[in-house]
Design goal:
By secondary structure, the protein is of the alpha+beta class. Helix content is about 30%, strand content about 45%. Helix 2 (about 25-50) runs antiparallel to helix 3.
């Protein structure tokens, strides 16, 4: 039953407004894609909170990392900054998650807020659409009851929308999928 619902979702929600040769997005479809992109960003926010929480068991953090990696395009990177030296380092997403899991704080709180599109989706020569979602991230690191580090970082998330195919019950179904790309630091400040 669950598989039938998934099949119907793909067929009814993601596919009907397109022909195979068409590579444009109708306004209705664009709204659905925007919603999906924002939902994936919110999911990533939840995953980062779980991975960064020092109380999360390793097996659970590893499971969540695998789920989070599914949100990203190959080769995507995450920017990490610090108010102490104003530097920004970029890590492949898997490396970022591994580093996040091993932070030297007893408790880490990561909150994303003010999530919004800042650029509309634009068609690229390769047939993909690309847009930017901006988020603000508040990071707090505690040792015992002491707040050791806190900052707020503005980040731009590249969003890729591309046509994909899947086979369901012997039929090839085309749909638009949303993948997250590089997450760039644009500003970091003390809270």
């Amino acid at each position: 039953m669950k598989n039938l619902i998934l099949v119907l979702f793909f067929v009814m929600f993601l596919f009907p407004a397109f022909s195979v040769a068409q590579n444009t997005i109708s306004p209705e479809r664009k709204m659905a894609i925007d919603t999906l992109a924002l939902e994936k960003v919110r999911d990533l926010s939840k995953y980062i909170s779980i991975i960064g929480d020092g109380n999360t068991p390793f097996s659970e953090a590893d499971r969540v990392i695998k789920r989070a990696l599914e949100l990203f395009a190959d080769g995507a990177q995450m920017g990490v900054s610090s108010v102490s030296d104003n530097s920004v380092q970029y890590y492949l997403i898997r490396d970022y998650f591994d580093r996040l899991m091993m932070l030297n704080y007893d408790q880490v709180t990561i909150e994303w807020f003010n999530i919004q599109y800042v650029s509309d989706l634009e068609l690229q020569p390769d047939g993909r659409y690309v847009g930017i979602i901006t988020i603000y991230q508040k990071f707090e690191g505690r040792t015992g009851d002491n707040l050791v580090y806190v900052d707020v970082t503005k980040k731009d998330i590249t969003v890729y929308v591309e046509r994909k195919q899947t086979q369901i019950a012997g039929n090839i179904i085309e749909f638009w999928d949303v993948l997250l790309g590089d997450i760039r630091v644009t500003e970091t400040r003390r809270q």
